[in-house]
Amino acid sequence: MASLPVRKLGKDGPEITRVGFGAWAIGGGGWSFGWGPQDDKASLAAMRHAVERGINWIDTAAVYGHGHSEELVGKLLRAMPPGEQPLVFTKCGLKWDAKDPMGEIRRDLGPAEVRRGCEESLRRLGVERIDLFQFHWPDQTGTPVEDSWAEMERLVEEGKVRWAGVSNFDVDLLSRCAGIRHVDSHQPPFSLIQRGAAAAEIPWCSAQGTGVIVYSPMASGLLTEKWTAERADSLAPDDWRRRMPAFRRPDVVKNLALRDALRPVAKRHGATVETIAVAWTLAWPGVTGAIVGARSPQQVDGWIGAVNITLTKEDLDEIAKAIDRTGAGSGPKRPGA
Questions:
Q1: 56 pairs with which residues across the strands?
Q2: What pTM, to 2 d.p., does this model score?
Q3: 1 belongs to a structural domain
Q4: Which helix (H) or strand (E) holds 103?
Q5: Closest CA to 284 of 328, 337, 326
Q6: Which of 250, 308, 253, 255 minimizes the C-alpha distance to 278?
Q7: Using one digit for the tens of pLDDT, what is the confidence trace for 53-98?
Q8: Is residue 183 part of a domain?
Q9: DSSP label of 35
């Protein structure tokens, strides 16, 4: 098995590789935030290949495929010797209607829902303890986050959860959680296009000893070699990206212009554009690792080299100028600026 660079997740967490396997797309289609049809054999092959290449963690969630992603991760774990299994990170707090799979998903972090989510994830994954259990999105039911986080603390004390984290929280919610129990990890969206977390949440986490694992570093496919402005029209009807402004004109033109500006940087490093996009997120102080999705072993090979790329000052300056020139996205433009 290959070896990749690792970094400690916050002050008390595990040593994780600087990229992890994102299991959103392998949940398949047929639900409101699916990525269209996906072959389970290809999903399992992609995860196995990622682990064989040295990745030591997989990030999934209960809502991905309405449990299907977790079930596939569980199937992978059962096929591997205990000493070779990756860490598994998952998330709770999103409720769906099984009778209406394309319907609305509700954000519910009530203590009973947090506990139910934990128990169901344990069952689907086939494990006795979840390595990192995270709140997927802030609550919409009126439950105080302090009550939700206190329940998470109880799950840790009971041994059902090893480390506790959140996703898509702002600094206010992070601070309120920290008043109850240390937040081991935060998972914000972060890419060359969606840069907002660098202004507030990532610095807060760095100051508090909270690890940061960013998601969608390739902007859900926009910052990859093959994406085109017309491709959104050919996506499966149940692919959530069809609804997103970032994949439609005029935004997609700016976004792809920024993607194209990465090509000279990629050429200098002998790398793919997607590798540079991921490496850019890893260049920010406070970012522990990046969650990167793949639907095949070949896609894993397309970005895993990001862990071995150090972008130079000249690279970062060139990319920042491209952000200004294209007007793509929003948020801080350069690490250390």
A1: none
A2: 0.97
A3: no
A4: none
A5: 337
A6: 308
A7: 999 999 999 999 999 999 999 999 999 999 999 999 999 999 999 9
A8: yes
A9: B
